[in-house]
Amino acid sequence: MKIFKNKTVCLGLFLSILLFIFGCSSDEGDTVKVEANDAAPIKIGVLASLTGGLESYGKQSVRGFELGLDYATDGTLEVEGRKIEFIVEDTETKAEVAVQKATKLLEEDKVDFLVGSSSSGDTLAVLPLAEEYEKIMVVEPAAADSITGAEFNKYIFRTARNSSQDAVAGAAAIVKKGVKIATLAPDYSFGQDGVAAFKEAAIKLGGDIIHEEYVDPAATDFTSNIQKIIDQKPDYLYVIWAGSNTPWNQIMDMKVQEKGIKISTGVADIATLPTMKPLVGMEGFTVYYHELPDNKVNTWLVEEHKKKFNGDVPDLFTPGGMSAALAIVEAVKKTEGNTDADKLIETMEGMSFESPKGTMTFRPEDHQALQSLYAVKLENREGLDYPVPVLVRELTPEETAPPIRNN
């Protein structure tokens, strides 16, 4: 640092600095605003299954996230004077790869936020990294209860619904006092947590869970599993499933419904609807179908998605990806561009924001987004070769609020 000995030069320089500062000040105060090009960008690392068993879910989430940033920033990809950059990494639906990619995003790319992932297993493996690096992770679309339950840490916020929210909706559709129910689910955290939550909700409504059947998530042959369920003679078979290897065809082949067992489930993405032809008339629930929510955000999403993706409509997890982006931008607006984790946590706890599914609110106790789900009935639609979910009623965020499980 150079020291000026000439007093006249020092005084002149000092006055010049003062003039510059006051010349740049706003009328409302003497804070100098930094131009967007001079501010550090906000970096977001998105973890998604772009290959593997949940590939379609990952691609839906990424599409929604991109559109969410466009909507939230009016197409500028800028918030509070800071440009937004996002980097997408493929977890391959493998927990060890998810950890590697998350570590790369945190250490090399220096991201301010993590988003993801498609698999609950991948997500659970990454949660400790968010805490270690003190970065906010917005979980979408992973649904395992343990994410905001036993494995929760304060850096985790989830826009995705959790298994308990699914369970409340699923139980409300079928459970009456004394009804006997068997369950079929994949044998990992998503399925296990889902059954546990459904069982809790069903018992509260007077139902009786008489059998729980778990199968390999990669299974394609469900014969022995379905036979065990038939042998138990339940009134209902409640199925929890994710992925393209659905059990519906074998359920039909084994004439489960003809044996007096009614089927109920959550209606998944559009790709699975053709396989659900045997279930027309079934009453269940869904997280999202593009015709169900009636609000301006969803209207924009449907229209823009069609424009950008050759007429395709948003699918099951597209609005979730959008919601994650909307939540991040809303939080950064409220902090006036500050991405310090502690400041963001303080801001996001209890924060409400608009999404394609209406108003979502991060519950302060466990950072789970309270949100609407939809009770539906499967009906045939003229011109389509698959049944579609038709709204029975919207289940409000208050109705679907899950138990707090993070102690």
TrEMBL record:
Keyword Amino-acid biosynthesis appears in the UniProt entry: no
UniProt domain Leucine-binding protein: residue ranges: 41-379
Signal sequence bounds: 1-26
Gene3D superfamilies xrefs: 3.40.50.2300
Coiled coil (residue ranges): none
One Pfam entry name: Peripla_BP_6
UniProt keyword list: Signal
Family membership: Belongs to the leucine-binding protein family.
Name of this protein: Substrate-binding domain-containing protein
UniProt source species: Psychrobacillus mangrovi
